[in-house]
Structure formats: C-alpha cells, structure tokens
Design goal:
The chain has helices at 15-30, 44-47, 78-91, 106-119, 137-147, 158-167, 212-221, 240-249, 264-273, 288-295, 308-311, 326-338, 344-352, 358-372, and strands spanning 2-6, 32-40, 69-74, 95-100, 122-127, 152-155, 173-175, 198-203, 227-232, 255-258, 276-279, 300-303, 318-321. It is an alpha/beta fold. The chain folds into 2 domains: 2-179 and 357-372, 3-Layer(aba) Sandwich (Rossmann fold), CATH 3.40.50; 193-352, Rossmann fold (3-Layer(aba) Sandwich). Helix 3 runs parallel beside helix 4 (106-119), helix 4 runs parallel beside helix 5 and helix 7 packs across helix 12 (326-338). The chain is globular, with a radius of gyration of 21 Å.
Length: 373
C-alpha cells in the first residue's frame, strides 16, 4: 500500500516527533511511504523562545531511515502546502495520515482535507489528543470541524474514543493503545545495598496540568523514606514557583531540578537510573511518558486520570492514585517502597506485548483501510 504521513520528525523535539518517527519507521518496513515533514512548525510568538529543533544531540535528520523524506512544509506559508499537495498527488497514495494534537493545525489540515476529498484520497487522523490540554470553547469548535472531515479515525484511550464518537458518530473509528517508545539502554553505576536510595523521576515539559507541585508536596510527606526526585524537562512557565516551593517544604536535599530539554542519550541515563516514574497529573488522556517508561521496563506511579487506567495495571505495572491529592501520591510512594519485590519489568513486558507496539498500530490502520475499501 502507498501511504503518505505528514508529520514532524527529528530533529524536531518532543514526544510528538518521536511518535511520528517511530510510526514512520514501522510504515517504511511494510509499505511504500512518502514522509513529508516541516521546515517550520510554529511561529516564535506561539512557541516562545524555546528551540523547536534538537541541537543537543546529534540532531541529524533521519534521512537514512526513509526512501522518501522531505522537510519542506512551512505551516505559515500556504505556497508550501500547495507544493506538498502536488507531491502527494504525484505519489497517488491509498491513504494519507495526519497526527492531531493541537488546534494550531486547523487551517493547514482544513485545506489538506478539502484537497484530499476533491482528489478522492482517503485520510486517517491519528488523535494523539482529541482536545488541547488547555482547552476552550473555540478550540473545541475547531477540533470538531477538523475531525468530522477525516475518513478514518484512531484514538489511544477509551475516554478519547467516547469523546470522538460524539464528534463524528458515523466515521470509522478504532482505539489502539499508545505504543511504547524504544531508546538505547544506558548503563548507570550500581549502588551498594547500604547506599540504596530510591530514585523517582518526573520527566517532560513542566506545565501546570502535570501537577509537579503536588508531587513536591508528596515528597515532603514521606521524609522517613530514603528517596531522591529528579525533575527533568523544560519548564513552560519558568522555575521560580517550584524553586520557592522546594525551599518552603525543606526538601532541597532530596530534589534535583534539570530545567532543560535533554537529548535521547542523556534522557536514557535518567530513565535507567530511575526506580519509579511519577505522573502526578491533574488531567490527561494518554502520555508518552508512560510509553517511554515501559520502553525502559520502569514502573509508573500515576494519578487515575483520562485513559491511564488502561495502561497502568494497578499493583502490577505500577500504581494508580487519586488525582489532585499530595497525600494520595505520598501513599503511592510508600506502597512502592513496601512492594519492591514485585517483578515490574517482567509484568510490563507481559502486558505490553502486541497491545502497545507500532506493528499493532499499523495493522489496525491496514484493517480499517481494507474494511473501508
């Protein structure tokens, strides 16, 4: 089958680019793939001063991974949209894939989907998020406008499936759990039993909905435990609020802040060192952090929000706790200390199997196209 994927891939940073790159690698194995990426995703006014491209690691564009890859689409220049459409028409795909995660893409996607309808090209939207994390009535309206125009839809959680079915009641829709992300495993020095400190990890962009403040308060509630928390990722709104909280709680000796984007090699070291990855989110639907944690065989302590209960098996691959409550998070940390004999890595490997693989996601796409045809 001939498939076109329009998506950010490295050297663009972040979980969306990693998702699209991993998907593209699986598609390249099984189909003829045209991969169209961006010369520019967002204007500086929207994204701020943070760099959009990885300049920390090798930053190489993955040209060697794909037979047809270009970085020519500028989200702010419609002339590049037209050129992309010409390339797609010449390629004559059976299917075009579009990831959806923020409403910024509404103008470009609306133009593309109209073009595909005119040309008789089928479209499938992969809803990494149905709605934005910071949502509004206008964003909901734009989301509905786009998602109702796709021919096929895929989501990664039951909650998202229900939400999307309300938006597009008659569009073919499938749920497929978010596949795990694979990274090189880093070696870390082993501590002796006498030195053994449990390492907690909070990873990724720090935004208010992710509840880092709740986790810091939880750490202050478990002062009897020998632990250290590493907070690794860019702070969307600055670090001062959290530094003040750390000082006020008197936990500065237990908390390591790494307020920057880290490349894959360095990220692998933090996950390799971690004993438990913590997601104290106030709200969410799916999370690439869980997929990354499972890729390293690491258990997860997460709040019971969105679709987390579908991928965190309570007491088996991690622990689910009540959201919005530092005491519940603290109790979850204590639970982990009391149950460290559980073979989390084996349980994770058994659970993940084909349910959270890129191959199973591509198979789902293939089945949807065959059924629609």
């Amino acid at each position: 089958m001939k498939i076109c994927l329009i998506a950010p891939v490295p050297p663009f940073r972040g979980g969306i680019a990693k998702y699209c790159h991993s998907l593209a690698q699986e598609l390249e194995k099984r189909h003829e793939l045209l991969l169209l990426s961006y010369s520019r995703q967002y204007p500086k006014l929207l994204y701020g001063a943070k760099p959009q491209v990885d300049s920390v690691g090798d930053g190489a564009r993955p040209q060697a991974d794909f037979s047809r890859l270009s970085y020519d689409i500028d989200s702010l220049r419609p002339s590049t949209w037209q050129e992309a459409a010409r390339r797609i028409d010449d390629f004559a795909p059976h299917l075009v894939l579009l990831p959806w995660w923020v409403t910024y893409w509404t103008p470009f996607y609306a133009w593309l989907l109209h073009h595909f309808r005119q040309q008789g090209i089928s479209s499938l939207i992969l809803c990494i998020n149905v709605y934005d994390h910071e949502d509004s009535p206008l964003k909901k309206l734009l989301t509905r406008y786009i998602l109702r125009r796709a021919d096929l839809l895929i989501v990664h959680s039951e909650e998202e499936r229900v939400a999307l079915r309300e938006i597009a009641p008659s569009t073919p829709l499938r749920k497929q759990l978010l596949p795990i992300f694979s990274y090189p495993v880093a070696a870390v020095p082993r501590e002796t039993e006498a030195q053994r400190t449990v390492n907690l990890l909070f990873f990724g962009f720090v935004r208010s909905y992710k509840g880092l403040d709740l986790l810091l308060r939880a750490v202050a509630l478990v002062k009897e435990l020998d632990l250290r928390l590493s907070v690794v990722g860019e702070f969307w709104e600055g670090t001062e609020e959290y530094l003040t909280l750390v000082r006020g709680l008197g936990i500065g000796d237990r908390v390591e802040l790494v307020p920057t984007y880290v490349a894959e090699e360095e990220m692998a070291r933090y996950f390799a060192r971690a004993d438990l990855v913590v997601l104290p989110y106030r709200s969410a639907n799916t999370s690439g952090v869980i997929a990354t944690s499972y890729g390293f065989g690491k258990p997860v302590l997460a709040t019971d929000v969105g679709g987390f209960h579908e991928v965190v098996l309570d007491g088996c691959t991690g622990k689910l706790v009540r959201p919005g409550d530092p005491q519940a998070i603290a109790d979850g940390i204590r639970w982990f200390f009391a149950n460290r004999e559980i073979t989390f890595a084996e349980n994770i490997a058994s659970f993940v199997g084909d349910r959270m693989s890129w191959g199973s996601l591509v198979t789902t796409m293939e089945e949807m196209v065959a059924h629609a045809g």
